[in-house]
Amino acid sequence: MSSISGIRPTKGFLFQMKKRLGFIERGCEFLKLKRDHLAKELRESLEVMRGQRQLLIEQLKEAYEALTAAYLTLGPMEARSQTRSVRRRLKVDVLPLSTMGVLYPMMKILEKPSIDVELDASLAKAAEKIMSLLEQLIHLAEFEARTERIADELGKTNRKVNALENIVIPQFKNIIKFIEDKIDEESLDELVRLKLIGGALARRRG
Amino acid sequence: MKTALSPEYVIVRCHAMSTELLSREELLEIAKARDEADFRDRMLATPYRLVMEELPPDARAIDYEGAIYTLLMNRVERVIKVAPEDFKAYLRVYFPLKFEIFNLKRILRGKHAGRDIAEIRDSLLPLSPLEISDYKSLLEAEDVEGVVEALRGTIYTPLYERLELYREHYALWVLEAELLHIFAEELERAAESSPRRFRDLLRSITSIRVGVDALLLAVSVSTVGCEYLDPDVVKPILEHVVEVPPEVVEVIMERGEIGEALGLLKHPIDEVMEPILEGDAAAVRRRQEERLMTLVEEAVKMRYFDFPYILWFLMRCEAEARDLVRIAWGIDQKLPYELFSRHLLLI
What we know:
CATH class of the largest domain in chain B: Mainly Alpha
Helix content of chain B: 55-70%
Strand content of chain A: 5-15%
CATH topology of the domain at 21-156 in chain A: Helix Hairpins
Distance between the termini of chain B: 37 Å
Mean pLDDT of chain B: 92
Structural class of chain A: mainly alpha
Helix content of chain A: over 70%
CATH superfamily of the largest domain in chain B: ATP synthase (C/AC39) subunit, domain 3
Radius of gyration of chain A: 34 Å
Largest sheet of chain B: none
Largest sheet of chain A: 2 strands, antiparallel
Number of helices of chain B: 19
CATH class of the domain at 21-156 in chain A: Mainly Alpha
Strand order of the largest sheet of chain A: 1-2
Order of helices and strands of chain A: HHEEH
Low-confidence stretches of chain A: none
Shape of chain B: globular
Oligomer: heterodimer
Number of helices of chain A: 3
């Protein structure tokens, strides 16, 4: 057994190993707690995201239809000229947030687009629809990024727990058992040796 | 250079040129092109071949638009060049001046948003300067104020008076509204100088064109939430449009009551504007174009060999160009035929 080779079967080492195993088992418990919490967060996030997405897709479809109608009414050159004349555009700040050590982006809207030019009424309708969706779109993007990171972290935590439960902890237990067996064997040898010596001494005295 | 000839000559010429127009069936066939390559092939079999051949093989809808408008401008110029003086004024305002105003708006928007010269130049319609001396000086102007300054001394001088409002509120729509006002004034002046027998027709055209544009402007600036809203900027545009009482603008811009505003409008503008109740501005534009065509078609029925035919011919050329641009964009965006065909005027 490769994990056993090179270990010292001493009581000091056994004590050290047991201490380490206790620490690993405690860590594993914490990781399991984290895993359960992340799984709960992920489940909830997925449910919310599914609902929000469906709603947003419907609204985006309407906005896209309005935009298509505007482009077809005005022609691409005029529509492009009008859309590019919007001076104050959307400005967002991306801040990091954390849940159970998982970092995800949170977007803060600093400035919403402001239209101070003459957009054709067809394009204005599309712009109005899209502007009303901007905040929702940003929140959904934020939520998707959060869900993705949580899912990622959940995968990592799961792998860590599995590795600890199935490989590291059994290995440590094997090592401890090996050392304990070795120490038991040695103490038995010692006892036999003492008994033999004791017998020899008694025979010499007698 | 050809000088103005007799009205009969121009009318006969327009009748001859009308053979260059695409029939409904031909347009339908182009609209059903499978992809851009197919669209190009179908266009090469039409009079648009001349302008389409010059385009690169990977041309997009925006390039096709430039080419299609080149042919439209060519047709407009050919007719106006030989039109009799009393018809010329209205045609000149209704077509080239309208397009020049489109270009001025695009320059102003580009300067307002700080776009570079090449980008603004690419967005312009292929048009020779009409009331301005050249586009170069406007494109090279540093900002909106520079453009307005360069336009002083032309028919666009009233823009200068609106500059203060623009500076104060950064509301470009004020200048765009003034351009519509200038267009309305020029149309009115041109109608006045046209033969008396056509003045009613020309005033009706002006009303539908300017009245609907002004109302849509009022709706649009209110919809997108412009910070600066002033009905007094829009009201002067409607000075000669009897179908739109000035208080309509206040109802739209101050109270946002579109339904109430529609109730104040007179026929036919109330009918044209009706879809705006559902927020369908594209349908309003379509009805506006249809109404204008119908108006001129009815006049043509009464006077087949007269000025209305020239007007009809040029309007038909413009409608065809617009439809082809819509088809090109629809195909470029891979939209199903059923979706973009709803926006076509001639099919």
